[in-house]
Amino acid sequence: MYCSVLSATVSGMEMIPVQVEADVSDGMPQFTMVGYVSAQVKEAQDRVRTALKNMGISLPPKRITINLSPADVRKEGSRFDLPIAAGVLMTLGRIPPGSLRKTMVLGELGLDGHVQEISGVFPAAAKARELGCTTLLVPAGNAAEGGLVGGLHVVGIQNLQELLNYCCEGKMPSLPSIENQKKEDGKEPDFSEVQGQTAARRAALIAAAGFHNLLMLGPPGSGKSMIARRIPTIMPPMSEEEQMEVTRIYSIAGMLAKGEGVRRERPFRAPHHTMSPQALAGGGKQPSPGEITLAHRGVLFLDELPEMTRTTIEILRQPLEEHRIVISRVSGNYVFPASFLMVAAMNPCPCGYLGDENHPCTCTRTQIDKYRAHLSGPLCERIDMCVEIRRVSYDSLTAPLTGSSAEMREQVLRARELQRARFRGTNIKCNARMQARELQEFCIPDAEGQRFLQLAYERYHLSPRRYHKILKLARTIADVQGEAQLRQQHLAGALQYTRFFEEES
User: Fold this and answer.
1) Which of 55, 237, 239, 441 is buried deepest, with most CB atoms within 10 A?
2) Helices 464-480/447-459 angle, 10° precision
3) What is the 3-class SS of 21-35, one letter each residue?
4) pLDDT tens string 401-426
């Protein structure tokens, strides 16, 4: 007897429908799986056989063949256990043939028949709805995640017995409620906790307002990490489309907490500087999202930037320029979204105290040059602004807390509203994404500003890319100040954030 059950597999950021075909026929007793399957999927035959046995269902001494179609797509993971078990039960006559019509089935089996949670249920539910399915059958722990996609009847089961009850008798397991996890009151970081550092706070505000990549340069303990951690709190709320994008990424990565629902807060990723290139970009035989993609629509904080390997650092060049990352494999190219705000931090020298009046620097010029040489010219060209952070004075450290994230966010929102009106009808959402056409239309300085810009271009030998970044940054500074005309003061403010890059070039 032959039957087929619909399932799906992850390929990069896409969900590909897979037909799990099962056939039981006379012949030498064996359990065969075909269809370009990985070792994880092949192990499903033992899990399914044992789970059925422990439920009191013995497989007949016949030839059982499972085919996962299409055969040219590699299948990985344990998500096919449940559809394989359903297909086998259907071929044995334990499940009515039409009971899983227009139903997508996903889930991993334990040896006792318990159905365990898997990753990627949210995008699988979206694909099921796209294919015209009416029902999604998943582990009970994933039912809330599947329920985030409207237009589907989500059935969450805890074991194979509930699968039999549902298919044979129509008994519906209880569906877990969808609840968003909330942070404890008072636990969210706030900019009011950052004492002093007026210049750094201003730079963070401008970076958030225009989505400009930021590099903070300062000695150890000056507050670089503290400032970076608070930048998401002043960024605009994510739109519904952005929330769905981020939720999809975290679902595929298996990082959605149980009962979390749609992710509404912007991601903040702070990987350790010893991470591998694969951890940053995403890798593996079947590539999965890396830190760059996990920071999509949020902040990627790279502390101790020069301590990262040169190979890892250079991976940032493509996503910073194209806002996506492409991973090439023999099976094809995998495209991952990478529209993030990069915030990096570094010491001025290996010991960290270059220019510090209270701590003499012990580094030689050669050591300093070698340390900074980890940042290549092409990478520096893709960083919009650099701010130097000094040690906080005692008076600033003991002063009352002022300048909350809520107040700074209001300034960011006003600047973003100006940008939204400016770019209405286009795909551009912030100043940092402007192209040559928009620069000529919205970034024309007054006469005094043009003379200043020409002088700076010739004096500092600016590259065309750096010249355009100064214009974009000046446009954001003007937006924060609520001014429509670009003036010399805005250009001078933008130029001061490039001093570090000028010294390195």
Assistant:
1) 55
2) 140
3) EEEEECCCCEEEEEC
4) 888 999 999 999 999 999 999 999 99
Residue 14, both tokens: 């896409």
Coil, strand or helix at 117: coil
| pLDDT tens digits, 291-350 | 999 999 999 999 999 999 999 999 999 999 999 999 988 778 899 999 999 999 999 999
The overall average pLDDT reported for the chain is 92
Q: For residue 493, how many C-alpha atoms fall within 13 Å in the half-sphere facing its CB?
A: 20
The string of DSSP codes covering 255-324 is -PPTT--S--SPPEE---TT--HHHHH--TTTT---HHHHTTTSEEEETTGGGS-HHHHHTTHHHHHHSE
- How far apart are alpha carbons 118 and 136 in whole angstroms? 14
Residue with tokens 């933008």: 494
Instruction: Find tokens 């996506």 and name the residue.
Output: 324
109's enclosing H/E stretch is: strand 108-109
Selection from 151, 160, 149, 132 nearest residue 17 by Cα: 132
Residue 85 near residue 96, CB atoms below 8 Å: no
- Helix/strand/coil for 337: strand
439 near 472, Cβ under 8 Å? yes
Q: Average pLDDT in the 199-228 region? A: 95
pLDDT at residue 134 tops 50: yes
Tokens of 341: 């705000």
User: Which value, to the nearest 10 degrees, does the dihedral of the CA atoms of residues 83, 88, 92, 95 take?
Assistant: -10
CA distances to 175, 253, 262 from 258, in Å = 13, 14, 11
- Return the ∠ at Cα 158 (arms to 157 and 162), rounded to 5°: 60
Whole-model pTM: value is: 0.91
In degrees to the nearest 10, what's the CA dihedral of 98, 99, 104, 105?
-120
pLDDT band, very low/low/confident/very high, at 219 (cuts 50, 70, 90): very high
Confidence of residue 503 (pLDDT cuts 50, 70, 90): low
The whole-angstrom separation of Cα 120 and Cα 138 is 11
Token pair of 224, please?
């670089």
With bands split at pLDDT 50, 70 and 90, how would you rate the model's confidence at 183?
Answer: very low
In whole angstroms, give the CA distance from residue 190 to residue 458.
Answer: 41
Antiparallel, parallel or unpaired: β 63-69 and 14-25: antiparallel
What pLDDT was estimated at residue 314?
94
Cis status of the peptide bond prior to 236, with omega within 30 of 0: no
Q: What would the pLDDT profile of 155-165 be if each residue is shown by its tens digit?
A: 999 999 999 99
The DSSP symbol for 177 reads P
Q: Are 9 and 45 in contact (CB under 8 A)?
A: no
Tokens of 357: 């009046």
Q: Sign of dihedral through CA atoms 35, 38, 43, 47?
A: negative
Give the 3-state secondary structure of residue 338: coil
Amino acid 502: pLDDT: 61
Task: Please name which of 414, 468, 403 lies closest in space to residue 208, comparing C-alpha atoms.
Answer: 414
